[in-house]
Design brief:
mainly alpha; 16 helices; globular
Length: 419
């Protein structure tokens, strides 16, 4: 018979799969190109996309530490669906910017909230030590969903379907994913706190004061722990530099691939992510001495894929992303092990805030160094930073902790890892 933990796992995996089956994700940069945007304009879209997410990241993380995270993630999904619809209805530069801003709002609301929600679902079942393998599997199901959507895009385009059709299919899938997240069990840590969950209405001033205090407590928790400072910083780099895949369609088209073949090279990236997630799920306690060099080697392969003028060599981006995904999942798990539950979304959002800044800088570099539709010079600079981060990870990513119960749903306010 299935246990309660099995049920939660299946619901999390189902949501992760369905939420990412969007055939537009593989080719939306081509939608931009087909409507007159240049590589430099697309990079500015990415910059504004990241900037909006950065501005709202930490404030939205504090909100996720105050309310039920399930409807918050559902609202975020709805905003992304609306943003994609705007792209399809008004695919001009201005329309693309509006859609990207809505997607950025989705990102800021969901980041931090999602990791905290998953951790709380597991902690409620005394399974917080399962976070690393569960998040690795969630990543795999997400990437499997994207791969499925990529295959759908490939088949649809080869049969004469339009990119706009793929966009409306992607919008429709949001309705299913929203339902999947709202049926997860309500395991808010606030339900165990006598100061929360009452029927008494909260005044606007009190809510703002609580929100401000939540942000302040999260920032203090990071500042008083050298381990947390290092983990937040390096996992921000891991998260922020997942940008090379955004340019794979442009690189593929520039090397002679027709639109029906472009999703195949995007698919290679998602296969690599699946492989990296599998490694993280099976070896959640890999030491930093293995993880750091693996990322550096993967970045070197990505550099070859970007620079060499060969369509086939482009699949090496997938191998590089396998290493990137593994160290990202395990670095995040080792961060979550060391955060108190009542500041989990806020601390995670600080990490995502820094990641957004790095992503913005990366897109600015690629945009500034692009020559027409050729983004290679900027991408090589991004990959070089990623390789250096792999070296630094040997010292900044700590070993996995033994399961101690830290970070469960009943952590009292003010605790944390003071080292």
């Amino acid at each position: 018979p299935m246990t309660a933990l099995d049920v939660v796992r299946r619901r999390l995996y189902a949501f992760s799969l369905i939420d990412e089956i969007g055939p537009l994700y593989a080719v939306y940069t081509l939608l931009f190109l087909d409507n007159g945007l240049s590589a430099s304009q697309i990079s500015t879209v990415f910059v504004i996309w990241a900037a909006v997410a950065i501005a709202l990241e930490i404030p939205s993380g504090a909100i996720a530490d105050m309310v039920d995270r399930r409807p918050l993630v559902a609202v975020a999904l709805g905003l992304r669906a609306v943003g994609i619809a705007v792209w399809l209805i008004e695919p001009s530069y201005a329309g693309v910017l509006v859609g990207a801003a809505l997607w950025a709002l989705h990102t800021s609301l969901a980041s931090g909230a999602w990791e905290a929600l998953v951790h709380d679902e597991l902690a409620a079942l005394d399974a917080a030590d399962e976070y690393a393998p569960v998040m690795a599997r969630i990543g795999q199901f997400s990437n499997l969903g994207i791969a499925t959507g990529t295959i759908v895009a490939t088949v649809a385009l080869s049969l004469g379907g339009s990119i706009e059709l793929l966009g409306w299919i992607t919008v429709a899938f949001h309705l299913v994913s929203i339902r999947q997240v709202v049926v997860l069990p309500d395991v808010r840590w606030v339900s165990a706190d006598p100061h929360h969950g009452s029927e008494e209405p909260t005044s606007g001033a009190s809510a703002v004061a609580e929100w401000t205090a939540t942000m302040r407590d999260g920032l203090r928790e990071i500042a008083r722990s050298r381990t947390l400072v290092g983990l937040v910083a390096i996992t921000a780099v891991f998260e922020g530099l997942f940008v090379v895949d955004e340019y794979v369609p442009l690189l593929a088209r520039d090397r002679g691939a027709d639109d029906a073949l472009v999703p195949v090279f995007v698919l290679a990236v998602w296969v690599g992510l699946l492989a990296g997630g599998e490694l993280a799920a099976r070896r959640p306690r890999l030491p930093p001495a293995v993880l750091g060099p693996a990322l550096a080697a993967g970045a070197a392969l990505m550099a070859v894929a970007v620079q060499v003028e060969s369509l086939r060599v482009l699949v090496l981006v997938g191998i590089g992303y396998a290493a990137h995904e593994a160290i990202w999942v395990l670095g995040d798990a080792r961060l979550q092990e060391r955060i108190g539950a009542r500041r989990r979304a806020t601390v995670t959002s600080v990490r995502s805030f820094l990641a957004g800044i790095l992503a913005t800088l990366a897109f600015l570099v690629v945009g500034a160094w692009s020559s027409g539709d050729d983004p290679r010079r900027g991408l090589l600079a991004v990959v070089a930073v990623l390789a250096a981060t792999g070296v630094a990870a040997t010292w900044l990513v700590p070993p996995a902790e033994l399961a101690t119960g830290r970070g469960t749903a009943t952590d009292p306010p003010g605790d944390g890892d003071p080292r």
